[in-house]
Amino acid sequence: MNWLSLLSRADGFDSAHLSQPAKDAIGNALEGKALTRESAFPLIECGSDSLIPLCQAASKLRDDGKGRTITYSPKVFLPLTRLCRDACGYCTFRLAPAAAKPLFMTLEEVVAVAREGKRAGCTEALFTLGERPEQRYP
Ligand code: SF4
């Protein structure tokens, strides 16, 4: 059974807007063949009308490879500072100094959050900060 037959069973699957190179790339991936840089380019070029079949193919790959179990580790989030030397366009973490008041968590705040997390059953602490903020804000 080829990938198109497999995916055709999915509700709403419609490969009409996928280019042939994109179909070939998806077909190869679903058959377990590694994508090359060249074979992946047609996937990048897929338009919004190709999003649903692309997501359906990705879902099938995920389900086949990893199953549908979602895991998580309970942890506390400790943003020691939200300053960062970089300004990545997609970032929702970084703040400019004027907006990041106070600039740093205090030791007392860190301990309080850690204790609250422990009380809530957390077993890990995720300490975060931006990329080398001291280089931009010495
Ligand atoms: S925190 Fe990370 S993602 Fe955000 S601007 Fe800095 S380097 Fe980029």
Map the helices and strands.
Elements: H1 3-8, H2 20-30, H3 37-44, H4 51-66, E1 75-79, H5 107-119, E2 124-128, H6 133-136
Parallel strand pairs: 1-2
Helix pairs in contact: 2-3
Iron/sulfur cluster binds next to loops.
Description:
The structure is a single chain. The chain has 138 residues and is mainly alpha-helical. It folds into 2 domains: 3-65, no CATH class; 75-136, no CATH class. 42% of the residues lie in helices and 7% in strands. It has 6 helices and 2 strands; from the N terminus they run H-H-H-H-E-H-E-H. The chain has helices at residues 3-8, 20-30, 37-44, 51-66, 107-119, 133-136, and strands at residues 75-79, 124-128. A two-stranded parallel ribbon has the order 1-2. Helix 2 packs across helix 3. It is elongated. The N and C termini lie far apart (61 Å). The mean pLDDT is 89. The protein binds iron/sulfur cluster. Iron/sulfur cluster binds next to loops.
Unreliable parts: none
**Number of separate helices:** 6
The profile of the biggest β sheet is:
2 strands, parallel
Helix percentage range: 40-55%
Based on DSSP secondary structure assignment, what is the total number of beta strands?
A: 2
Please state the CA-atom Rg, rounded to the nearest Å. Answer: 22 Å
**Which secondary-structure class do the elements indicate?**
mainly alpha
**Distance between the first and last residues' Cα:** 61 Å
Strand content: 5-15%
What's the mean pLDDT score? 89
Helix-strand sequence: HHHHEHEH
Bound molecules: iron/sulfur cluster
Physical arrangement of strands within the biggest beta sheet: 1-2
What is the approximate shape?
elongated
Q: Could you state the oligomeric state of the chains shown? A: single chain
Number of structural domains? 2
